[in-house]
Inverse folding.
């Protein structure tokens, strides 16, 4: 299985380079970077990033280190998603909240797999990397530790859908300033609508960014969710929207 | 053939990680990052970056996604550069303007190679990545679509060279603030010269950054083109120069 | 042997992509990025980054290009660290100051290994990359050039340790604002202490970031050195500390 890394370490500091050294010197598995640019300590952002990316990486071991509680009593979880033959290694802090399907998890406690003389501040190097290398080399999940039935879940209200309205949340502002919601476009396919976000009401939609013309519009993004956009500009900046803002969509009668 | 990626997606958002998942799960070819830090929508910058990098990557499939027109009627071009055994996959928006030599191109239209149920907003995932993986796995160019004889070219005035003067353009400000022009140093080898850029006239040159001393100077950069530099500082900031500024070099008689 | 790259080139400019093309087209060795985000020209920062990372990469060729003197008479050094079977390729400007142990070095002068028609401004492409590829392909160190007995060392005062006090230096501000010193925690294990840094005196310590509570505290970082931290905030910003600031730790009697 290949390895895929997701951290908030950035690449200015040596943390990622150290982790990769531990991995590369212990396994021949391919090492891929998903991102190291999760905002520091942003577990929600990491959870959303991971959930967006994971469907495209079958047969992969995900090594996820966004870990404000490193060194405290928080556990490390290793979770298998069975149908996709995926393994997720993460602090048990909610990072796996949005990974669904048929899963089973263990608490990573087998110290024989950790680096000796490890620190209490850099589990990425001392625990995550050697355990991930062991998994890549075929160590079975059950050797990592005892079953963990109740992993930590973030307080996150999933979207709700009614007959003539729906409610959701802006879960991400992307690099272009698009405001990505968690509302599935297929379930909000109203012929005419009014989307309420912050102080704004948006009634235009577009199938593409290029054809949208001026002003804000609603578009179905690459993941099939509603996005609020402005062509060649930042919708978030222009409309003063941010992650966590609630969004309502209502039918407008013709 | 190896794969090399060039995008304006950055690594904060999940787009690159998704594209790589599609690639890595479909081909064993090596995947290299050229950059994901092209400024958003900057097709000219991408064209220049690609032209600078391509000579050093023989036998490579370039996957280039800087695509403000995604989802509109713009085509996707796959171009073979025959002598270098290179393949270029890009939106037909001018991104390949500066790739010269003996080339032939097709319009990528074979939907059997795309992901099913694709979006109109993320062709990087739905079209570029699976088509690139197919090329890496040996699918011939002609299976992608019909020949494309007239690919889009950017409006860009190449440099002109006279006996005692030459004109060109600042095509890039690099990370150090060096102002890189498109003028070949070998064709402007005047014994004494005056370079006019913005409000400034520069008459000093240096063979190296380290030996230059104080103040602005002209140097032959790593690609053989004239650059305007200031040792250990940003020439662009100090001289208020930017990309697109025209530059003139004149002989000064002794 | 695998290749690991460390530069101050960033990924906005094409320099790293060009270097990797030279490497990938000349050797099948794996190519890893350590970082390309060393601040421009920051040889000290590069030296510290390399010393922190190197222990975790046995059997590796390090290609280090932070090179304000490129094109001047500064040498290029290739150094073997014998017990770790590591090779370091770097400008002879102090970048290898903190690599210790049983080493031998040569001055890289064998022009047959360089790219033909090389520039005086981009040795990363014209010298470092082809020489690194040659080393990865088995060319012995002695073919690179004559022995170099006196490599350049940075002016850097190592920490000093006394019975009831110790002195050191802040060598790095990390992405989270932690102020990392060069003082080994195991040698400053005073039961009660007062750490003086800038205008501040810190007397609290914590075993983890998560358990620290409010206000500044001292922690043993991932590399075993003392760090000055503030939980979920930037110690450097709050305490106005910067790299190079001297730090003193004194015993406080109970």
């Amino acid at each position: 299985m290949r390895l895929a890394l997701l951290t908030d370490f950035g690449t200015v500091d040596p943390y990622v380079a150290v982790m990769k050294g531990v991995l590369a010197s212990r396994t021949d598995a391919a090492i891929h970077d998903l991102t190291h640019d999760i905002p520091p300590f942003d577990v929600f952002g990491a959870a959303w990033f991971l959930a967006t990316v994971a469907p495209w990486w079958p047969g992969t071991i995900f090594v996820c280190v966004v870990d404000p509680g490193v060194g405290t009593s928080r556990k490390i979880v290793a979770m298998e998603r069975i149908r996709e033959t995926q393994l997720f290694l993460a602090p048990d802090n909610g990072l796996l909240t949005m990974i669904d399907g048929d899963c089973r998890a263990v608490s990573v406690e087998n110290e024989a797999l950790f680096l000796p003389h490890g620190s209490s501040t850099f589990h990425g190097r001392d625990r995550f990397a050697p355990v991930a290398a062991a998994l890549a080399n075929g160590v079975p999940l059950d050797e990592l530790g005892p079953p963990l039935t109740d992993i930590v879940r973030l307080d996150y209200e999933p979207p709700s859908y009614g007959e003539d309205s729906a409610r959701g949340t802006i879960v991400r502002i992307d690099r272009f300033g698009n405001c990505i919601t968690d509302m599935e476009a297929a379930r909000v396919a109203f012929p005419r609508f009014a989307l309420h976000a912050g102080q704004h009401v948006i009634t235009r939609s577009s199938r593409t960014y290029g054809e949208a013309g001026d002003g804000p519009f609603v578009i179905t993004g690459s993941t099939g969710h509603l996005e609020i956009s402005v062509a060649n500009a930042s919708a978030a900046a222009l409309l003063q929207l941010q992650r966590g803002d609630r969004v309502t969509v209502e039918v407008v009668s013709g």
